[in-house]
Amino acid sequence: MTSRSDAIAAFAPAKINLFLHVGEKRSDGFHELESLVVFVAAGDTLSFAPSRELTLTVGGRFAEGLKTEGDNLVLRAARALAARAGREAGAAIALTKNLPIASGIGGGSADAAATLRGLTRLWALDLSWQELRAVAETLGSDVPVCVESRSSWMEGRGERVTAAPALPEMAMVLVNPGVAVPTADVFRALKTRRGTGMPARPARLSSPRELIAFLRTTANDLEAPARALAPAIGEVLAELSRMPGVAFWRMSGSGATCFALFDNESEAEMAATALAHSHADWWVQATRMTV
Question: Exactly one of 15, 97, 111, 221 is catalytic; which is it?
């Protein structure tokens, strides 16, 4: 990352779909979705410094996975924001990629949204959250919900974002078995779906008991097709289910990252340590929901 004193830093937290219901395919080719999305304390970091040209340098554990991308979401977000503001897209951007690539936790989308936030500050733009979400819609289904990075209901193809009720700040463990599961392949393999149009949203989910009870009435419709394509997801879920103190476990997004909720951070840390020891090839991260 750049250490220039005039650089602006932005954090791109991982996005977790606590549930994900899939509806019918729309006329625009996207599926109707319904999800409760939360964000966690783990994520990528970016910095933005003044420059006449638009440049991007990438470092971090998962930087290698972006080497073949000549035009990733960060650069596309910068150009889209510059076009919206009617200015040149000049900035030196540095990305530290801590999250796995294409893993169902919105890493690229979170990076794009953080770019919109960071460059809005760097370029001193007077844009509302609504205006930034309008730019985000042009970049991908998960980008709008990542703009504010707060607990939200997500609907449509991802463009309809509304605030969720107060949620408990539960400890969480994220696990990715190192298997790439392309989102398009998962949707093509989708056979059974719950559909959208939840009859009633809970007005209150502020305790762990309330949240877990609600989540047990929901599902991730993409989990079954993702597991069929990548059986390692089933192994991850089985391991998470056996961890002491675990309250709930599920796959996020289109996979392959899975999450488990715990009542306290010490149990989450112990679970993460055990999993990292027994599966050295897995990406394991103890974290917490940010609310």
Answer: 15
The pTM of the full predicted model, rounded to 2 decimals, is: 0.94
Q: Nearest to residue 158, comparing CAs of 145, 171, 168?
A: 145
15 among known catalytic residues = yes
111 an active-site residue?
no
pLDDT digits (tens, 9 = 90+) for 66-115: 876 666 899 999 999 999 999 999 999 999 999 998 899 999 999 999 99
Sorted by where each starts, the structural domains of the chain and their CATH numbers stand as 8-163 (3.30.230.10), 171-290 (3.30.70.890)
Annotated catalytic residue within 44, 97, 111, 142 = 142
Decide: 115 and 93 in contact? Cβ < 8 Å.
Answer: yes
Tell me how far apart the alpha carbons of residues 169 and 264 are, in angstroms, rounded to a whole number: 10
Backbone φ and ψ for 280, nearest 5 degrees, come out as: -65, -20
Say how far apart CA 150 and CA 15 lie, in whole Å: 9
Q: Give me the helix-helix angle, 107-122 and 73-85, nearest 10°.
A: 40
**3-class secondary-structure state, position 146:** helix
Helices (H), the chain: 73-85, 107-122, 129-137, 143-148, 183-188, 208-215, 223-229, 232-241, 265-278
DSSP letters, 189-218, are T------S--S---S---SHHHHHHHHTT-
